[in-house]
Amino acid sequence: MIVIDTASPVPPYEQLRAQLAAQIHDGTLPVGARLPTIRHLAANLGLAVNTVGRAYRELEEAGLIETRGRAGSFVSAAGEEGRERARRAAADYAAVVSSVGIDPHEALRIVEAALRHAAPAES
């Protein structure tokens, strides 16, 4: 269930995007699940069509959903593939960190700095 908090400082499209992403990541929305149409979801949530459209576009850009024209939008398998790539990269990083003797806390600080640097600019 998606809940939009109109009193939140977080924009509605981001609330929607984050909740859908969480449902995809935790398996509530499994790979292949069809999402509601943008218009239908906008009407149900009391949001503008453009707001829901932006959330869907950002999910698609992240590889979590795919749009198949008039057939609609579906949860993509790419999201799971991305998480697996991240797990493999983390294991490789952990092996490097261990082999060069970097303290685990310092290794986490390095990762946090890299993630901050790699984070896309908000529009």
Describe this structure in words.
The chain is mainly alpha-helical and 123 residues long. It has helices spanning 12-25, 38-45, 49-61, 78-100, 104-118; strands spanning 65-67, 73-75. It has a two-stranded antiparallel ribbon with strand order 1-2. It is elongated. The model has no long low-confidence stretch (mean pLDDT 90).
| Helix and strand pattern | HHHEEHH
Task: Count the E strands.
Answer: 2
Question: In DSSP terms, counting alpha (H) and pi (I) runs of 4 or more, how many helices?
Answer: 5
Gyration radius (Cα, Å) is 18 Å
Mean pLDDT: 90
The biggest sheet, with number of strands, parallel, antiparallel or mixed sense and barrel status, is: 2 strands, antiparallel
How much β-strand is present in the residues? under 5%
Outline: elongated
Percent in helix: 55-70%
- Enumerate the spans where pLDDT stays under 50 for 5 or more consecutive residues: none
Structural class: mainly alpha
Question: Within the largest sheet, what's the order of strands?
Answer: 1-2
Brief overview:
The protein is mainly alpha-helical and 123 residues long. 59% of the residues lie in helices and 5% in strands.
What layout of secondary structure does this protein have?
Layout: H1 12-25, H2 38-45, H3 49-61, E1 65-67, E2 73-75, H4 78-100, H5 104-118
Antiparallel strand pairs: 1-2
Helix pairs in contact: 1-3, 2-3
List keywords for this structure.
single chain, 123 residues, mainly alpha, two-stranded antiparallel sheet
